[in-house]
Amino acid sequence: MTALNLTTVRVAALFASHLQPSDSPNPDDVRLAVRDAIRRHGSRGCADLVAEEYGEHPDCAARRMAWARRVVSGEPRTLGADRTVRTCSTAAAGPPGPATEMAAAAVSRLSGWRGVAGPHPPAPGTAR
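^ thats the sequence. predicted structure below, dont judge the formating
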């Protein structure tokens, strides 16, 4: 995997994690959240969750993605200074539209994965 792909996986995993900007995470919190998200969902599952969130709540997803990218890139202002967090109403988001396909395509392009959302076959050498 290239550095870009590893960074992309880390960003998607942080996006899919339980960690919130309002938690003011430190670098150890971020590492643990990324590790746990990858263990729980796998890199493809994290990408699925990103695409799903962009389809259901694109405005919220864009803010969360920007935060995740800043945190993973190590911008100093992100780790503790990001205290203003807007909450997103699921009712305000409306039905999914063309953004779903666009987000899924972007995640697939960035991650190199060409599958469909949903359950994934087990990795070679593992059992389910």
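The CA atoms of residues 46 and 86 lie 22 Å apart.
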